Amino acid sequence: MLSAFARAFRTPDLRRKLLFTLGIIVIYRVGSFIPAPGVDYPNVQQCIAQQGNNDLLGLVNLFSGGALLQLSIFALGIMPYITASIIVQLLRVVIPRFEALHKEGQSGTAKLTQYTRYLTIALAILQSTTVITTARNGVLFPGCGVDVIPDDSFMTLTIMVITMTAGTGLIMWLGELISERGIGNGMSLLIFTSIAASFPAALWSISAGVGGIGKFAIVIVVIIIVIGLVVFVEQSQRRIPVQYAKRMVGRKMYGGSSTYIPIKINMAGVIPVIFASSILAVPGLVAQFGDPTAGWVQWVSRNLVPQSAPLHIALYVLMIIFFAFFYTAITFNPDEVADNMKKYGGFIPGIRAGRPTAEYLDYVITRITSAGSIYLALVALLPTLVLVALGVSTNIPFGGSSILIVVGVGLETVKQIDSQLQQRHYEGFLR
Fold first, then answer.
1. What are 161-186's pLDDT values in tens digits?
2. What span is annotated as the signal peptide, if there is one (predicted)?
3. Where are the domains of the chain?
4. Reduced to 3 DSSP states, what percent helix, strand and coil does the chain have, rounded to the nearest 5?
């Protein structure tokens, strides 16, 4: 492995791509600590030291690499782009024009990407306004007695919104630069960087709360086991064999080859976990604006806010399973795959082309997604359940979703570096 990395840096073209990617990551991390105009940085640090728990803001802060609570120019992180990308994918089901663009190939994809950029900027304006409002009202730092935005004039707040929105646009551009001139998917690597940057602080908070080196060692072992489970499942595939019949086009013979359709156990990725976490965090955020003595506020604080509450866990599992099936149904259309196979003379051995093929693919996808959704729920809950068993506060930005993203992006990036090495040296990381 180390020799493979050494060969990667000895290859001029690959070294240039790696250094360019690392340079963009450094710029991204530096921008996460530059406060936005109008923010009192010492007061922000004081509030961070005594902040309360807020699951929704904690989730956004996780994906921004801690920049949200710093109220920096990159406070929104990559979340507006993630949200915009998911919305555009969901709109393909509702808006026929989007589905037609998706089928047009590269030109249609470029148009959808342009729509995603516009929507990202619109969401960034909305989210920056929300973050600034919560900071002024004391919701961002509950219990903190100092003002993080001393000057709340209209001009100052407008400049803050413009700065945070511009920061989101810059992050989006940096991610696209990595995809074009670096190694790996730029947006995914920026998310990876944000989450990995929060790991040391999360591990330190766990070590301070478990009360003993033995319990901390148990937590580390569980994390390693979960990482191994994620690597094993993410690499697993159900390969459906496909045979293409021979056909004559002019004087040339085409087809006659055999291939397969690779279907991953977890086709939805980490999206179901993010959706479920975001939706479950909304009631707690709304309850913070209500009367603390009200019955519904106390019920929400007791049953939905704590991650260890039985109702929270049950709803979390059900939402993960639902969104796993929902997102898989959007991203994989058995009817479309069956039509494309029939168009090019392909068929699954033993299955008739057309409608029977679509029904068979739907049957396979349903079974695989059932196992994949249970796997997602298990990975998302296992770290929390272990921390509950050890008596550690679970309202920390460290869980199954973080491990899923970090391991998934890491595997994909290593595969790309490995393919680059094999093109030049015929030898990758694995011999």
1. 999 999 999 999 998 898 888 888 88
2. none
3. 32-182, 198-431
4. 70, 5, 25
Confirm whether pTM is higher than 0.85: no
CA distance 126 to 165: 9
CB 169 within 8 A of CB 394: no
- What is d(CA 56, CA 160) in angstroms, rounded to the nearest whole number? 21
DSSP for 202-258, written as a single string: HHHHHHHHH-SHHHHHHHHHHHHHHHHHHHHHHT-EEEEEEEE--EEETTEEE---E
**Residues 6+ away with beta carbon under 8 Å from 345:** 244, 245, 247, 255
198-431 fold: Preprotein translocase SecY subunit (1.10.3370)
Q: Please classify residue 405 by burial: count the beta carbons closer than 10 Å to its beta carbon, then call 0-12 exposed, 13-18 middle and 19+ buried.
A: buried
Cα 379 from Cα 114, distance rounded (Å): 34
Q: How far is CA 226 from the centre of its chain?
A: 17
Nearest to 84 by CA among 55, 115, 45, 129: 115
Write down the residue that tokens 């999206």 correspond to.
Answer: 271
Q: Scanning the structure block, which residue is given the tokens 């980490």? A: 270
Backbone angles phi, psi at 244, to 5 degrees: -105, 125
Give 75's contacts (C-beta < 8 A, 6+ positions apart).
36, 64, 67, 68, 128, 131, 164, 167
pLDDT digits (tens, 9 = 90+) for 223-245: 788 888 888 888 888 888 888 77
